[in-house]
UniProtKB/TrEMBL annotation:
<dbReference type="GO" id="GO:0016491">
    <property type="term" value="F:oxidoreductase activity"/>
</dbReference>
<dbReference type="InterPro" id="IPR020843">
    <property type="entry name" value="ER"/>
</dbReference>
<dbReference type="Pfam" id="PF13602">
    <property type="entry name" value="ADH_zinc_N_2"/>
</dbReference>
<dbReference type="InterPro" id="IPR013154">
    <property type="entry name" value="ADH-like_N"/>
</dbReference>
<dbReference type="InterPro" id="IPR052585">
    <property type="entry name" value="Lipid_raft_assoc_Zn_ADH"/>
</dbReference>
<feature type="domain" description="Enoyl reductase (ER)">
    <location>
        <begin position="10"/>
        <end position="299"/>
    </location>
</feature>
<dbReference type="InterPro" id="IPR011032">
    <property type="entry name" value="GroES-like_sf"/>
</dbReference>
<dbReference type="Pfam" id="PF08240">
    <property type="entry name" value="ADH_N"/>
</dbReference>
<dbReference type="InterPro" id="IPR036291">
    <property type="entry name" value="NAD(P)-bd_dom_sf"/>
</dbReference>
<protein>
    <submittedName>
        <fullName>Zinc-binding dehydrogenase</fullName>
    </submittedName>
</protein>
Length: 301
């Protein structure tokens, strides 16, 4: 099979498909033929070494999420031919999804949504699981006020869609005025481009996705989550009785099943900026690095 695997930290231009043995299917795992995956910021940081020492030993295959077709499932949960999505905690396991064939624990796979194609479906698992798990940690209820920063991004946009669909009042911070209309269409009530524009001490919860300092915007007694690992720990707001946390995503099939339901009920609309063949991985990454994305970049195998 082919895989986008690296044996050292590499520039984009060194990425290429290489031939590798097919994965072994160990007990409890399902073998999937990958149709589509996507580029996430963590892949970029892992490839170029920005992630630091926490990479698996070289060589390893990149990629955290997939949509594909079941080839074999000795556990019997899925049938050959089933359309599925899956998430792999690539940094923890070294098992990437940018390959023709991937074997994943059956507990980290779910039947794919039926309302969208596999390219769209393959962009949801990592940002979707992150959004759901962080919203769960935030323990927020209808009529509360939530601030989402980086709300036009993959994690932020899913968080806005889920939270606003449950009656939570969501405001948002984006990087550019051109993103305001999109994020408003997802259900955000007020969208600004700078944290300084936010009303002081007005939000019950903050969900930060880029390392914003929104400490002045959250009310005393609130909860403050960030997923921006590159920005260091969450601000310490204990003096104001605010619980803050740098949250880390976990692979979880139950969460994937919730995401599938949210896609099929129209709560989450996956947004794809562009689609590239896996063989065209260098151009795909150049698009990713150029920024100003209108959704995710899909890699089709
Ligand atoms: N801890 C975890 O388990 C976990 C899980 C998933 C993701 N993450 C991390 O979370 C971050 C977000 O992931 P993602 O997939 O959502 O990335 P993404 O799609 O690139 O979204 C990030 C968003 O933040 C915006 N942004 C960046 N700087 C900003 C600023 N100064 N002001 C306003 N907006 C700003 C970006 O705007 P532009 O497009 O204009 O740059 C983009 O819309 C990444 O760092 C990722 O590695 C962590």
């Amino acid at each position: 099979m082919r895989a986008l695997s690296i044996d050292r930290f590499s520039p984009i231009e060194d990425l290429r498909l290489i031939q590798m043995p097919d994965p072994e299917v160990t007990p409890g795992e399902v073998l999937i033929r990958v149709v589509s995956s996507a580029i996430n910021p963590v892949d970029d940081k892992t490839r170029n070494g920005d992630i630091g020492d926490s990479t698996p030993p070289f060589p390893f295959t990149l990629g955290w999420e997939l949509a594909g077709i079941v080839v074999e499932d000795p556990t019997g949960r899925f049938r050959p031919g089933d359309r599925v999505i899956g998430m792999s905690h690539q940094l923890g396991t070294g098992r990437g999804t940018w390959a023709d064939l991937v074997s994943l624990p059956v507990t980290e796979v779910a039947v794919a949504p039926t309302s969208v194609g596999l390219v769209e479906a393959g962009t949801v698992p990592l940002p979707g699981a992150t959004a759901l798990q962080v919203l769960d940690w935030l323990d927020i209820h209808a009529d509360s006020r939530l601030l989402v920063t980086g709300a036009a991004g993959a994690v932020g946009s899913i968080a806005v869609q889920i939270a606003s669909s449950t009656g939570i009042h969501v405001d948002a911070v984006v990087s550019r005025p051109s993103q305001i209309e999109y994020v408003s269409s997802l259900g955000a009530e007020s969208v600004v481009t700078h944290v300084e524009e936010l009303p002081a001490r007005s939000y019950d919860r903050v969900f930060d996705t880029y390392g914003a300092d929104a400490s002045e915007a959250i009310s005393d007694g609130g909860r403050y989550a960030t997923v921006a690992t590159q920005a260091g720990p969450a601000p310490d707001l204990t003096a104001r009785t605010i619980d803050s946390e740098l949250c880390q995503v976990r692979a979880d099939g139950d969460v994937l099943r919730q995401l599938v339901g949210l896609v099929d009920s129209g709560v989450i609309s996956p947004r794809v900026d562009s689609v590239f063949s896996a063989a065209d991985v260098v151009r795909a990454h150049q698009r990713f690095a150029a920024g100003n994305l209108q959704g995710k970049i899909a890699l089709v195998f």
